[in-house]
Amino acid sequence: MAIIKQFEIIMIIATISFIFISCVKKEDNFVISTGNIPIYYDVKGKGDPALVFVHGWSRNRNDWEGQIDYFSKKHKVIRLDLAGHGESQGNRNDWSIPAFSQDVIAVIEKLDLKHIVLIGHSLGAPVALETTKRVPDRIVCIVPVDAFHDVEERFTQDQINDILDPFRSNFVETYARGARMILKDPVQIKKSIEQIASFPPEIGIASLERCYHYRSNHLIPALQEVKVPIRCINSDAIPTNVEAARRYAFSFDAIIMDGVGHEMQISDPERFNQFLERILSEFK
To answer: What is the arrangement of strands in the sheet containing 116-121, beginning at the earlier edge strand?
Structure first.
């Protein structure tokens, strides 16, 4: 009888310990950002500069699965879910680029990162740029991924509405049509479409509209203000106007990956990692 009671006590202690460890781990992996939204992130590895990976529109931090193990051998690597994406669920009134940048800053400040390369895919690129505006002393380089192809491109509100109206009518099918155009791998296309089905349309439409407004009104002023090097890794599917970007950011440059779609870090992680490593070699 005593043995049974002793066993029960051990099991209770083990259960309490497991719950405690789980709670500590959960708390360690999120920080509260604008709108009281918990921003979840992963950290792996050690070494400067720290690499902070920011996903694109409607995506999540799993997009960087092919980069985490590779770069954590030499760097502290952080990937996060922006508000409303992945695990960072929640609602707020502001889905703008500056609001998303506060999500990144919240993680940077919690981890006390001081020497950072910011890697931002698609929508994550202007988020990285805006983040650098707000914490310039912490960022040593920005790496936009398939972004900033033509920084002088502008959109009127009517043009933005023309883009958004199909999303308002049928969010998933409109995304699916776009995915078939910008992605090359059929498996990746299928997975991407399946993922968008669980993404809140109201967040998707609001954030997409704010992104177009940022590109039209705030991108060039931000490029002029930010003084760190900007090194794009872009697909050849859309031409990158390097000369136009250099009119506003003298340190702008681009590496072009041929034969890949919009999500090249997923479709060809080996080649993408080599290009990113080449960029990082400038900032050892």
So the answer is: 30-33, 37-44, 77-80, 50-54, 116-121, 139-145, 230-235, 252-257
Domains of the chain: 32-283 (3.40.50.1820)
- Reading the block at residue 170, the tokens are 């049928």
Pairing of strands 77-80, 50-54: parallel
Q: At residue 13, what is the residue type?
A: I
SS3 90: coil
Does the predicted TM-score (pTM) go above 0.85? yes
230's tokens: 């900007």
Q: What share of the chain is helix, strand, coil (3-state, %, to 5)?
A: 55, 15, 30
- The strand ranges marked E within the chain are 30-33, 37-44, 50-54, 77-80, 116-121, 139-145, 230-235, 252-257
Q: Phi/psi of residue 40, each to 5°?
A: -90, 145
What pLDDT, on the 0 to 100 scale, is given for residue 91? 87
DSSP 191-205: HHHHHHTTS-HHHHH
The per-residue pLDDT for range 48-104, each reduced to its tens digit, is: 999 999 999 999 999 999 999 999 999 999 999 999 999 998 889 999 999 999 999
Closest CA to 210 of 96, 90, 63, 52: 96
Weakest mean pLDDT among 29-33, 37-41, 89-93, 150-154: 89-93
Rg (CA), the chain: 21
User: How far apart are alpha carbons 76 and 181 in whole angstroms?
Assistant: 35
The 10 Å Cβ neighbour count of residue 19 is: 10
Under the banding of pLDDT at 50, 70 and 90, the label for residue 29 is very high
In contact, 150 and 241? CB cutoff 8 Å: yes
Cα gap 122→195, rounded to integer Å: 17
